[in-house]
């Protein structure tokens, strides 16, 4: 069968999302809005999956692009991140319980997805920076609606975009200075230490769903890879060291947190810093590891965050100061939390294990101290994860009349990443091959 | 026997050891995740059939080793993953010799016995299925550790054993003390794991293979030839001693041992009485012959072992519970085993492990019937055993024993408290910075209106 499409799958996704957004926004009831958003998120995932399969598995179909290719195009990295982002979006919409629908905007989630896809396909640096700004505007709008302070986010985002714009437009002839400014700008945007206040502020003042989506899509890291010149000069290796120190710091903070959301934020940031350290490393093996950890962390940390959000939806903000004892009431959520925590921290048998091993080998080959930092960060992260599991799920069960059992929609949403992680665990070579392909020179498709 | 036949039979036995356990583990995990109701007998059947099949595989390997007339057999699973451009590859390697096989057979026998005991002991317990899930994970980890032919395979098994132990310490999930203690044990285990992984990395960075047979210049255990230069050997050996000390509760990590007794008796028996506590000693037995040319390393092993044994014998006197007493009694023996390894008495140390594990398992499993046993003993003797007066020296030792808690306190005040203090201060600084940047909240914000703070 010879399929001839009027445009590529990704372009279809780009067109379908705004239509779905409008359709969801026009829904007469909250239940209808959720159903429509779920359909759209599902369709979006399907289209991105088809684009991914088209790129990797099938022979390229004869396509006619509607959009100018010097603006929008795709490659292996963009497609992989788009697939992760679409899956995360579907999980977020699927797991949102009806009790929370009034306080969570499905239309905003779809808008974020659309902007993310545009960003992933953007070819020009200016367009990419503009989209990064627009994404933050959507988050600012949510805060404004909630009457929360916009100052911290505003200051950080303006400085991030300002520095990145100067680097991109004013210093094209000075690669070292441009790399330094761009790295600083996008470092602030991503919220990597020492600029973690931006992420923590998100987790404390925005809705947890939006905060998780904005953190775990790792669009700042993607922009860093896209905008940073191939030869960064001295700033690149310095940034890798800084990322490793940041990973250790955040892992240490995750160990002592007594507030649930701050734990999730620090725990995720520590993993993100490890990913960035791998990607910026001069070692080819560490770069492969960076990508492998990216895929593993994006799913396991998002799922971990969503489990957290599910419990928050039932019980309100969670404290890690006292034992929650929830395992008796929600054994499935407890088991999934444990599995995701183990996967994120690189427990043997999980896909994260191979990524972490490769990162350890790659970084310690460059400098033994780098390997030591990775080793300590991962050990602290696993201590933090098991501590959080114990504080949330073990201990004396609370006397509560509320039904805390997992719902079918939640279970389905959480099973999606679990299946992916199980597949990666059973066939780690596939994940590492893919990561190796991404760590090489970029391959583009029309 | 033809080499090809021998190779295939070895592979078959290895598969028999690991595959049924892995499948049973996956089934048990799936059942737990989907909350399928399953009878206790079926949970037990899954576990016991895995042990029996594994045991038959191990006995098959013993027969093969005897029949082949070789000192050791090896089997490599092939590259599990490989990145040739980055020179990164991994595969499961197994070394079947007169160290690994006796230890494996012992493990399977004791795990099988404890499994049969637990079926009755934990009958109608809420976490019955959970027990067998982590029991299978422990079995898999221990089998991997025992047969490991390279340092990476040993590390994977080592981690699985540690995680299963921690999960079973917090088996009685409702008890806060059990959960707290399991976390403390996890912290020590992670430190030990970090040291282990550090040793593996150093080994690879020095251009050495992690393969035990290559490291031993293909000489059979325990006559392995030292292949590492002095400086390298000392560094790697020191890291592995830290790893072994953490796993076997040697000084200065001994404080976690009584805390680990929070788990059910069957798990205490198999983890801290018999097998898990010997894993550190097993690691030392595997690598010590490679470092036998290091007098400093050997002397430190003897000192560490003896100090741990003396310390445990003092601490044992003041333990109020029988399981705690037995745990410290185990540590005395493990300390002596480590000292034997330091003295180069490898075969004696192996025999000591086997004998000690058997007797201690029996004692742990009899621990719940202690009062009954004591009564019977007194009836037989015809007099009370409580009447004997303590001598002055015994009282002094008893008082000295009370200081064992100070060691745990020392670790907390020397490591944990500074760690928490440093990060708490950093967090306070961060929060001040964030508050200053964010400015005051609007009077109409959700935060100030306090509507429950549920922002999902």
Structure notes:
The complex is a heterodimer of chains A (446) and B (456). With 446 residues, chain A is an all-alpha fold. Chain A has 18 helices and 2 strands. Chain A has helices at 9-25, 30-56, 76-95, 106-121, 125-145, 151-170, 175-190, 197-205, 208-216, 219-227, 235-256, 260-280, 284-315, 331-344, 351-366, 368-393, 408-426, 428-439, and strands at 74-75, 444-445. By secondary structure, chain B is mainly alpha-helical. In chain B, a hairpin with a 4-residue loop joins β2 (81-83) and β3 (88-90). Chain B has a two-stranded antiparallel sheet with strand order 1-4. A two-stranded antiparallel ribbon of chain B has the order 2-3. Chain B is globular and about 65 Å long. Chain B has helices spanning 3-34, 40-68, 100-121, 128-147, 151-169, 176-205, 212-215, 230-247, 256-259, 265-274, 276-287, 295-317, 322-342, 346-366, 370-381, 392-401, 404-438, 446-449, and strands at 73-76, 81-83, 88-90, 93-96. At the A-B interface, α6, α8, α11, α13 and α14 of A face α1, β2, α5, α6 and α17 of B.
Q: What's the overall geometry of chain B?
A: globular
Shape of chain A: globular
Reported for the largest beta sheet of chain B, the result is:
2 strands, antiparallel
- Biggest interface and which pair forms it? A-B, 73 and 64 residues
Total number of β-strand segments of chain B? 4
Order of helices and strands of chain B: HHEEEEHHHHHHHHHHHHHHHH
Uncertain residue ranges of chain A: 1-6, 442-446
State the order of secondary-structure elements of chain A, H for helix, E for strand: HHEHHHHHHHHHHHHHHHHE
Give me the side-by-side strand order of the main sheet of chain B. Answer: 1-4
SS content category of chain A: mainly alpha
Q: What average pLDDT do the residues of chain B reach?
A: 85
Portion in beta strands of chain B: under 5%
Output the radius of gyration of chain A: 21 Å
The largest sheet of chain A is: 2 strands, antiparallel
Approximate helicity band of chain A: over 70%
Can you count the helices of chain B?
18
Into which percent range does the helicity of residues of chain B fall?
Answer: over 70%
**What amount of the residues of chain A lies in strands?**
under 5%
């Amino acid at each position: 069968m010879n399929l001839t499409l009027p445009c590529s799958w990704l372009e279809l996704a780009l067109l379908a999302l705004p239509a779905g957004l409008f359709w969801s926004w026009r829904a007469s009831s909250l239940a209808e809005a959720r159903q429509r958003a779920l359909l759209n998120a599902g369709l979006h995932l399907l289209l991105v999956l088809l684009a991914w399969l088209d790129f990797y598995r099938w022979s390229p179909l004869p396509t006619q692009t509607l959009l100018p290719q010097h603006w929008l195009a795709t490659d292996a990295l963009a497609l992989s991140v788009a697939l992760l982002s679409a899956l995360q979006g579907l999980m977020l919409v699927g797991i949102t319980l009806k009790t929370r629908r009034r306080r969570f905007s499905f239309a905003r989630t779809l808008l974020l997805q659309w902007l993310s896809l545009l960003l992933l396909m953007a070819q020009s640096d200016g367009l990419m920076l503009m989209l990064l700004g627009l994404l933050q505007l959507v988050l600012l709008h949510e805060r404004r609606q909630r009457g929360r302070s916009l100052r911290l986010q505003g200051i950080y985002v303006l400085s991030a975009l300002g520095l990145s714009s100067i680097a991109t437009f004013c210093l094209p002839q000075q690669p070292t200075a441009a790399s330094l400014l761009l790295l600083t700008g996008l470092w602030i945007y991503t919220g990597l230490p020492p600029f973690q206040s931006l992420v923590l502020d998100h987790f404390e003042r925005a809705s947890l769903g939006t905060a998780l989506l904005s953190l775990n899509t790792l669009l700042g890291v993607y922009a860093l890879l896209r905008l940073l010149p191939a030869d960064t000069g001295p700033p690149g290796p310095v940034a890798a060291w800084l990322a490793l120190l940041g990973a250790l710091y955040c892992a240490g903070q995750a160990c002592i947190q007594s507030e649930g959301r701050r734990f999730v934020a620090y725990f995720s940031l520590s993993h993100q810093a490890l990913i960035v350290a791998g990607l910026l490393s001069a070692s080819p093996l560490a770069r492969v590891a960076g990508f492998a950890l990216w895929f593993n962390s994006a799913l396991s940390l998002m799922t971990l965050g969503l489990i957290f959000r599910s419990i928050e939806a039932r019980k309100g903000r969670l404290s890690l100061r006292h034992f929650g004892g929830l395992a008796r009431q929600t054994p499935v959520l407890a088991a999934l939390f444990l599995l995701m925590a183990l996967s994120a921290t690189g427990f043997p048998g999980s896909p994260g294990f191979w990524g972490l091993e490769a990162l350890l080998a790659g970084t310690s080959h460059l400098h033994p101290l780098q390997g030591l930092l990775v080793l300590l960060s991962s050990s602290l992260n696993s201590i933090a994860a098991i501590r959080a599991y114990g504080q949330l799920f073990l201990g004396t069960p609370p006397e509560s009349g509320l039904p805390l059992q997992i719902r079918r929609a939640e279970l389905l949403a959480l099973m999606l990443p679990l299946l992916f992680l199980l597949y990666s665990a059973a066939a780690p070579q596939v994940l590492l091959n893919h990561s190796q392909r991404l760590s090489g020179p970029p391959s583009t498709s029309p | 026997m033809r080499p090809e036949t021998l190779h295939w039979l070895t592979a078959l036995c290895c598969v028999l050891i690991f595959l049924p356990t892995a499948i049973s583990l996956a089934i048990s995990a799936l059942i737990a995740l989907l909350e399928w109701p399953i009878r206790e007998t079926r949970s037990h059947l899954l576990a016991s059939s895995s042990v029996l099949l594994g045991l038959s595989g191990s006995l098959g390997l013993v027969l093969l080793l005897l029949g082949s007339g070789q000192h050791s057999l090896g089997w490599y699973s092939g590259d599990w993953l490989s990145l040739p451009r980055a020179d990164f590859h991994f595969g499961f390697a197994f070394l079947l010799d007169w160290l690994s096989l006796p230890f494996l057979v012992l493990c399977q026998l004791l795990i099988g016995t404890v499994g049969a005991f637990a079926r009755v002991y934990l009958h109608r317990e809420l976490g019955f299925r959970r027990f067998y899930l982590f029991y299978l994970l422990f079995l898999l980890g221990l089998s991997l550790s025992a047969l490991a032919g390279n340092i990476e395979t040993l590390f994977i098994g080592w981690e699985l054993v540690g995680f299963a132990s921690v999960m079973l310490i917090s088996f009685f999930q409702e008890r806060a003390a059990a959960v707290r203690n399991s976390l403390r044990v996890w912290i020590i285990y992670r430190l030990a794991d970090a040291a282990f992984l550090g040793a593996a990395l150093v080994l690879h960075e020095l251009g050495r293979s992690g393969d035990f047979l290559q490291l031993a210049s293909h000489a059979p255990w325990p006559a392995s030839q030292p292949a590492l230069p002095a400086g390298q050997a000392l560094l790697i050996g020191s890291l592995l001693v830290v790893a072994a000390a953490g796993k076997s509760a040697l000084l200065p990590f001994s404080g976690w041992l009584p805390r680990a007794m929070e788990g059910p008796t069957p798990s205490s028996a198999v983890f801290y009485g018999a097998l898990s506590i010997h894993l550190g000693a097993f690691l030392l037995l595997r690598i010590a012959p490679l470092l036998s040319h290091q007098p400093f390393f050997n002397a430190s092993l003897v000192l560490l072992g003896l100090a741990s044994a003396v310390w445990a014998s003092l601490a044992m006197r003041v333990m109020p519970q029988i399981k705690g007493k037995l745990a410290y009694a185990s540590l005395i023996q493990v300390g002596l085993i480590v000292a034997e390894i330091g003295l180069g008495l490898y075969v004696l140390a192996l025999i000591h492990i086997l004998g000690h594990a058997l007797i201690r398992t029996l004692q742990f499993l009899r621990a719940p019937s202690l009062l009954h046993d004591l009564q019977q003993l007194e009836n037989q003797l015809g007099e009370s055993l409580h009447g004997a007066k303590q001598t002055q020296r015994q009282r002094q030792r008893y008082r000295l024993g009370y200081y064992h808690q100070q060691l745990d306190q020392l670790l907390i005040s020397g490591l944990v408290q500074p760690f928490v203090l440093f990060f708490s201060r950093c967090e306070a600084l961060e929060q001040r910075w964030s508050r200053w940047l964010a400015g005051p909240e609007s009077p109409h914000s959700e935060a100030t209106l306090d509507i429950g703070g549920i922002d999902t």
